[in-house]
Structures are given as C-alpha cells and as structure tokens.
Amino acid sequence: MNKVLYHLLILTLACMLLSCKPNKTFTESELSLIPQPQKMTLGKSSFQFNKGTKLVTENVDQKLIAAQFAELLGKPTGWNLDIVVGGDEGSNQVYFITEPMMEPEAYSLEVSQKRIEIKAAKPAGFFYALQTLRQLLPPEIESAKKGNVDWLVPVISISDHPTFKWRGFMLDVSRHFFTKEEVLRMIDHLAIHKINTFHLHLTDDQGWRIEIKKYPRLTEIGAWRVDHEDKHWNSRPKQQIGEPATYGGFYTQDDIKEMVAYAQSRFVTIVPEIEMPAHVTAALAAYPYLSCTGGPFTVLPGGVWPITEIYCAGKDSTFLFLEDVLTEVMELFPSKYIHIGGDEATKTEWEKCPDCRKRLRAEGLKNMNELQSYFIKRVEKFLHSKDRVLLGWDEILEGGLPAEATVMSWRGFKGGIEAATLGHDVVMTPNTDCYFDYLQGPMDQEPLGIGGYVPLSKVYNFNPLPPELSPEAAKHILGGQANLWTEFVPNIKHAQYMAFPRMAALAETLWSPKDVRSWGDFSRRIQLFMKRYDQADINYAKSAYLVTAKAQINPDKNQIEVALKSEFDGVPIHYTMDGSEPKYSGSNVYSEPVVIDQTSTLKAVTFVNGQPVEKAMSQTFNINKATGRPVTYMVPFSSEYQGSGEYTLVNGVRGSNNYADGEWQGWMGTNMEVVIALGQGTEIHSIKVGSFQSPGSFIFSPKKMEYFVSSDGVKFEKVAEVVNEADSIKEENQVKDFTASFGPITASFVKVVAQKGQAVERQPTWIFVDEIVVE
C-alpha cells in the first residue's frame, strides 16, 4: 500500500476512534449571547474543549475564577481541567492576561482554533469573559448530566463592557421566605446574566428575616406568622389569641456571611434592606415599645392598607434600636449602600402621638412630611458616619432629601429625575417597566398575581436614562433594577417564573448600548437561550409565546376584525373559530385579521417544531344588536382608561380580571352615561352590562344600573334598573354583570346609566365597564 494512503487511513481511523470531528464554523443565527456584547466579530472554524484543555492564569484571583468555570464544565463532562498559575504558551489552552488600561468590568475574548485569550484589568472582567465563554459553549454546560456533546466554541473576537454600573435585582424574602440554598441558586442565575447587584428585602410587615443578636425577639417573634397561605393575600385574618405562628423563617448571621461570600465570588454585591419607618409590623410584634401606641401587634399574615402602624419618630429609643440593628447589618454586609425603605408611611399615628408632636416642635418642623425627612436624615447621618450610603425609595424626597442619600425611583421616573437634578445618585426601577411581580402575559393565562402588566418586550425597551435630564444630571443615573415583590409568589419555582426570561431582557438593557440592541434579534436569541434555562432546571415563563387578540370594529360591515399576535415575531399562530383546540395540521394558520360576523369562540396558539408552546388563547366574541353601533358618551370616560376607543363598549369583547387589559373604560368619581344608536325600529328584550370590582384599586361596581330606550334619541323611557345589593367594599376582585330582561320593545336608541358608588376614605372611586350587550 502506498505510504501516504496508509498514513491517511491510520489518521482517519484514529479520528473515528477518538470521535474526532472537523471543526465547525458557526453562524450568528446559532449564537445566543445575552447581554449582547458591545463589539463582536465571528470568524471561521472553532475551538474544541477536551479533558486536556489547560487554564493558564497569572495570579490567585484569576485562578479562583478559572476554578468556577472548570467546575461548571466538569459537571456534564467529568473532566478535571488543569489550572496553573503561569506557564509556557501552547495550544489547547485558555490564557488569562491582565490589561491594566481596561475598565473594571470590561474584557476582551479572542477565540482561535488552537487557543483562547482573555484580557481584563480586574477580576470582574475575567469573570464576565468566562460568562460569555460559557454562553458560547453548548447549553448542556448548565446541566449536571453527562451526555455526548461536542464542546465547541466558535472562533470569535469580542470586546465588551457594561453601559451602566448598577444592574440590579431585588428579591422580597419577607412576604414569602426563601431558603439560603434557594438564594444561592438565584445568585448563580443572576451571574450568568452579568447582573451585579442583589437587593434583599429582609424586613416588612409580614416577616423579619435576619438574625440580630442584640434583639433576639426579632426572629423569635417577628420571623413567624400564622399560616393562612390557603387564602387570598388580601383576605387573610390576623392572628388570633392562641393561634400558632408557624409560617416563616430567617437567616442566621452565619447564613448571611455565606450568602455574601458566595455572591462576592460571582461579583454580585448584596444590598440589604431594613424597612423604616413603615412596613415594620413584624418588628413591632417583637418590640411594641417602638410604636406610637404600644401595641399589642402580631406579624401580619397578608396584605394591609393603609400602613399606619410605624416606628415612632418621637422616641429616642426608636433611633437607638435602629442604630443597633444597622450596626449588626453593616458588620455582615460590606455593601456601600444600605437600603432603608422609606416608602408608603401613613402618618396618622404620628399626628396623634404626643412624642411625635413634641419632636415636631423641638426641631422646628412644619408638618409630618418634614418629620419623616427628619427621621430619614437622622438615620442617614448615622450611616454616613460609618462610611455607608443611605439608599431609599423615592418617598424619601418628601419633606427634604438627606444630603448624601441615593434614591431608588419606583413610582415612575419622576422621583429619579428630581433627585438627579438635585445632584443625588439614582437607581431607576419604575414599576411600569421593572416590577417583576406584575403579570407578563394575559391575566387569564397567567398565575395569580398582584396585577399590572410588564411583558418581556416592555422590560427590553426600558431606558433608565430619561432624555429630559441635562448631561450633568444624567451622570447621577447609576443604572436600573428589577423588583420581585412576593405577596403572590409563594415558592422559588414561582419566583423563577416571574424573574426569567425578563431578567435577560433587563440585563441586556443595562449592559448593551442601544446601537447593538434590537427586539427582533433579542427575540431570536432568547428563544435559544431558553435551552440553557431548561438545562439549568429554571422554571422560566413562556408568556412571550402567548397569543393576544386585538378586536377592531368595522362599522361599515357590522363585523369584528381580530388581529392576533405574540411578542415573538415570526412564530406561527394556528387558530380555530369553533372553540376547538388548534392543531398543527388542520387548523387555520394566521396571516391577516380574522373576520367575525357571528358569535364565535376564537382559540389561537403558537407552534414551535410542530408543538404548541403554551396553552391556547380563548376569546368569545358576542355579536349582538349593539355590536358595532355608534356610541355617544354623555359623560366622557377617563383619559387614563380609554379601553380600545369609541367602540370599546360595543366591540363584542369582554374584559379580563386585569382592568388595564385595554378592554375596560373607566369613569372616576362620576356616573357613566352612554347612548347607543341601534338603528331604526330594532326589537330588543334584554340588556347586559359588564363591570369590574377591585376594592384595592378603588374600583367598585355601580350601586345601580339604569336602562332607557328611545325612538328619536331625545325622549327616553326607563325600561329597567338593576340595584347592586352586595357590600362592594368587602368584595374581592371580580367581573360583575348587570342583566335586565323585559317584554319585547321596539327602540332605535338605548341609554345606559351606571350610578357611581360613594367615596371611600374621602377618595373618589372608579366605575369600570367593558361591554354592553343588547338582545
């Protein structure tokens, strides 16, 4: 045999035995880096990791970071990669090289066919480079299960650094408790997204979660509440005498030290929050002398509003207690920032308290807002003396902002804009964009939640830098943060569902510059990235695949045209109109608005790889004698809740339990009065009107609904009325119908008047209506 042919045969056989494969060239469509790097150039071929790959570092700090990566890759491969400090250059190696002129979190990553080179100035840069390298490897790196995987990385050149230095996530561990192990796993999940700040909401009315050695009753009493987890959060009775408090938990100081060290090793700073002066019932249950009234108190098992039981601002003992607590907190958390809350304090007890009124006079304060400012400033002065920075919700602006305080703006952007203009640092976390306890899909297709609507695309479009800020004020915007309040999040799987993939969208918004970001490309990448969530056993939401329907009246044809969409562009939607479940084969594929001219139940779902991704949307369209007819609003609806416009009440679509779903029209503090032109001489025998009830949002069903008819639109005759017999104040969130039937009547016009309820606590209330059905 020819020697050349012989050697080729031997080489071929060796490759087959060693599972040797030609190096693959990747395309950009196969990459799913999140957040998107600042600069990236994809080359040809790839680098292949194997058990002989060596990680070459320069010092101990780099070695520790390399060891995390080696441990991660070792789980699905069984490899124990060699990590050395210093060494000769060679192939099949990953090199760590210090580049002093780079920014602290910046890095460069150069992958060639034979070696990988990482450059950074600080350990954080090397860590983030390895998170990018991790994402370039197959998704199976997130799993502990061994499998037949080619551990290839594309040849690529990346230069990267973050846009904002504060990239945060807040987890409320007070309303529902999460174990130390669950917190550690959450830190892992944040790290892969390059989130660098983990805000722990440790205390609130429903639980005190941190051991304070000087005040043991804070965890003996304050960490436990009566277990009413089977009841709605806002309908839980308070603890009764003799009733055991069995739900809760807390972190020992050793737990905290472990969590802090674990986070630091992943370049995540834990910022503790100790609430004051409100959201403190758990502390008052343990030490009632800290209040204005002296108690007694119990740890609240659920919601409370307004929040009136707060720390007494008039007693020096309150501040002594807080300084003691904060001293122990600062010993545990090296964070520059200490969050003190400062939100939602109703000061009715301060107004009645002799000690608070005495403090008001002694300090020359004008009102209770200034007393709160005094409270916050006194705490800020103490923190400043310990070289820490007070961080608080935007309510700390009320009455005057402490000199060195940083503001976390949650009630929209307004507070953050004001604080930045005054020269204070700001973290933007508006509830409209960053509250991850808000729903991320249609309410009827999502788990029970607090309400609101912050879908994935909304998070992705979040910009923490308001355009109206001057260049000087803009320098004070540190970045942004997502907040996951847990009133309706009872366990870690639900917390994961609410956090992911929205955390990925936030991470990219805060890391990547605008010129490299686009929703379309992120949509592609996040769908691939979800494979990593699968491997890591993260219970992420697929809500962005859910189908939503937007109905529009065509008055000329008296029909409804329904547009279907999901957040992800290009994902096929299959639908039916007879109420049956859509199938991949045999169902209609959506391409243009669906025309509905008779009462129908429309169901629609997205399909990927021939399988439905989520449950089907189901919407019934009721075509009746009012559908598509002209509506005259005798009392205009609120500009805040306009529904879908002038045909909202006659578009055949019912609203959901989410009053912000675009199908509800609202009237604040007034009656609703509308006239519908049915057409000449229409025979009718019933009228039904849908209303919404949400006491917590001051939305109440009408106390009475009146129905009138007319032949000329001028003179109206009452044909029926329906009185609301229920005690609306005590009712839960619900859709409530008012239906009246009567003998057949010929009419050309129908008028509906909804009588508003009485004001609650001197605050005007809302009427919400979704549909008027005339048969």
Could you explain how this protein is built, in words?
By secondary structure, this protein is α/β, with parallel strands linked by helices. It has 4 domains: 27-160, Chitobiase, domain 2, CATH 3.30.379.10; 166-535, Glycosidases (TIM Barrel, Alpha-Beta Barrel), CATH 3.20.20.80; 546-617; 631-774, Sandwich (Jelly Rolls), CATH 2.60.120.1190. Helix content is 24%, strand content 27%. The protein is built from 18 helices and 34 strands. The strands form 7 sheets. It has an 8-stranded parallel beta barrel, surrounded by 6 helices. The chain has a 7-stranded mixed beta sheet with strand order 1-7-5-6-4-2-3, with helices on one face. Strands 28, 29, 30, 31, 32, 33 and 34 form a 7-stranded antiparallel beta sheet that branches. Strand 17, helix 12 (414-421) and strand 18 (426-428) form a beta-alpha-beta unit. It is globular, with a radius of gyration of 30 Å. The model is unreliable at 13-19 (pLDDT under 50).
